[in-house]
UniProtKB/TrEMBL annotation:
Residues 10-347 form the Enoyl reductase (ER) domain. This is Alcohol dehydrogenase catalytic domain-containing protein. Belongs to the zinc-containing alcohol dehydrogenase family. SMART domains: PKS_ER (SM00829). Gene3D superfamilies: Medium-chain alcohol dehydrogenases, catalytic domain, NAD(P)-binding Rossmann-like Domain. Keywords: Metal-binding, Oxidoreductase, Zinc. The lineage of its organism: Bacteria, Pseudomonadati, Pseudomonadota, Alphaproteobacteria, Sphingomonadales. Its cofactor is Zn(2+).
């Protein structure tokens, strides 16, 4: 099959590689139709990382079933599917209680099977393949992973009716967080420095947008928005290199007794970020970490998002700003990375 492999300098080379095969009876082989680019992918873009060289990456994808194992009961060749890429080892204590998102072997397992979106085929257990309704496009379905990350953070936050929510970052995660908060009856303020992203946030229902590129005072705007107390919940959805600024800001935007939910990703290794720990403690501000997604009670969060999208309660189509084919994957990443000039939000890549 054709796939985009990571190169020594962190870009991609499209080449022929071996197609995956079904290893056991409960596995499914699918042809990838559309993959996406998220913030995690961008943090690894154009960066020399020997551990990723010659690997297939990508974890936002939808496609079509090609072959099923003998024990597969709910899928058949030709079925349209969205593929969950959060996959643990299945045997550890966390996997046994459906918290596989914090499995110690998560990365090793998921990258061996389902987390290989930038190749023509992927293979994984049937539980990771969700039938896709005909009226949901492959492009829209590629955003289900993003929205599932948002839903997990939403559950961790316990967002409620009439709460005042602040969101730092108006990328796909922040815009997904916005939609879920509005569905729950909350009021939402969102912060970013990209005007086109904030325009989209307004379209999706944001009550207040704050453009930091114009020198707007974020804390002042949040206090005015939230009755001079601060936000009930502040979601940090920027992550990466900006975390040294955005995490301290998030703790300043949360009210006494409020929550900061960290959704944006960190880079590997130790990172020192000074915080006003005394004020955070004396205010009993909770800092809640949120990682990927798994189950909420008895329900798989990816399945919940699929239902919300199918029912028209989430808007994925408006987030898709650019489209490329696999041969132009480097152009796709350059476009996504330069969002301040390109206006990119979610960049979709047609794989096959």
């Amino acid at each position: 099959m054709r796939a985009a492999l990571k190169t020594a300098d962190g870009r991609f080379q499209v080449t022929e590689v071996e197609r995956p095969i079904i290893p056991t009876g409960d596995f499914v082989l699918a042809r990838v139709r559309v993959a996406g680019i998220c913030g995690t992918d961008l943090r690894h873009w154009n960066k020399a990382e020997p551990e990723l060289e010659c690997h297939i990456v990508g974890h936002e994808l939808a496609g079509e079933v090609v072959e099923v194992g003998a024990d597969v009961t709910n899928l058949k060749p030709g079925d349209r599917v969205v593929i969950e890429t959060v996959m643990g080892d299945g045997v550890c204590p966390y996997c046994r209680i459906q918290r596989y998102n914090i499995c110690e072997h998560l990365y090793d397992v998921r990258t061996k099977y389902v987390s290989r979106a930038y190749g023509e085929f992927v293979c994984g257990p049937q539980s990771k393949f969700y039938p896709l309704p005909d009226h949901v496009s492959f492009e829209e379905a590629a955003l289900i992973d993003t929205f599932s990350v948002c839903l997990h953070a939403h559950h961790r936050a316990g967002v409620g009716v009439n709460q005042k929510i602040a969101i730092i970052g108006a990328g796909p995660i922040g815009l997904g967080q916005l939609q879920l908060a509005k569905l729950s009856g909350a009021d939402v303020l969102i912060v970013d420095r990209v005007a086109s992203s904030l325009e989209l946030a307004t379209k999706l229902g944001a009550d207040v947008v704050v453009d930091t590129s114009k020198g707007e005072d974020v804390l002042e705007r949040v206090l005015a928005f939230a009755g001079e107390r601060g936000a009930d919940v502040c979601f940090e959805c920027a992550g990466g290199e900006s975390m040294a600024e955005t995490l301290p800001l998030a703790t300043k935007l949360a009210r006494r007794g409020g929550k900061v939910v960290v959704v944006g990703g960190f880079d590997a290794g130790e990172l020192s970020i000074p915080l006003e720990w005394q004020r955070i403690q004396m205010s009993e501000i909770e800092i809640v970490m949120s990682a990927s997604f798994a189950f909420h009670d008895i329900y798989p969060e990816q399945g919940m998002v699929l239902q919300l999208l199918a029912d028209g309660k989430l808007d994925a189509a408006s987030l898709i700003t650019h489209r490329f084919d696999l041969d132009h994957i480097n152009d796709a990443f350059e476009t996504a990375d330069a969002k301040e000039t390109t206006g990119a939000v979610f960049v979709a890549i047609t794989i096959s």
